Amino acid sequence: MTESDEWATVETVVEDDMDSTFESRRGPSGIQQSIFEQTLSVLTSINPWLLLFIALGVYYLVQKFRSSQVTSSAEYSNLSADEILARQEAVELARRQMQEEYDKKAREHAIKQKEKEELLRQEKLKNLEKYGTKLGRSSKTLAAESSNDQLQQGVLKKKSDKSKLKPEYNPLMGDGSSGVCYRPTRRGGGAGGG
Questions:
Q1: Are 51 and 39 in contact (CB under 8 A)?
Q2: What phi, psi does 180 have (nearest 5°)?
Q3: How far, rounded to the nearest angstrom, does the alpha carbon of residue 14 sit from its chain's CA centroid?
Q4: What is the residue extent of each domain of the chain?
Q5: Span 84-116, pLDDT tens digits
Q6: Measuring CA to CA, which residue among 94, 95, 97, 75 is closest to residue 84?
């Protein structure tokens, strides 16, 4: 083997090695590994006491979740068919009682609404007697109509469009009678020209 053949073999081996490492990094396990490495480096840079408290919190939550699952499943497995039936009947009874209470409140509300409607009807009748042929209109609409009629007749004065301030009044210049008036400061800075 010549020297050029040896170099060619070395180059192909190196290229194959580089390709395989690149593919392994690019594959799903390589991505997961790099994410794991990044997470590990971040966690090691954080205060170790914080990591300890986080680990204890996770452990506590896992234990609590497991114990609640065990008790709930054990609770239902220990019940007999009669006890399950009794619970269902109790739930149904509670539902019926709540529905009856709701229906009772709905009836009371409907009665109150009818009473309010009756009061409004009586008020309209009083307005009818009071104002004559204006059928079923409330006093508010009648008052608005009467004010519109008065405007059309010219009884009410039209509001003046004049401003209450003098035309030469400028609040920045004072009221004119005093010798002191506002003068803005000079914008120029120091003693430079300009």
A1: no
A2: -90, 130
A3: 60
A4: 31-78, 81-131
A5: 889 999 999 999 999 999 999 999 999 999 999
A6: 75
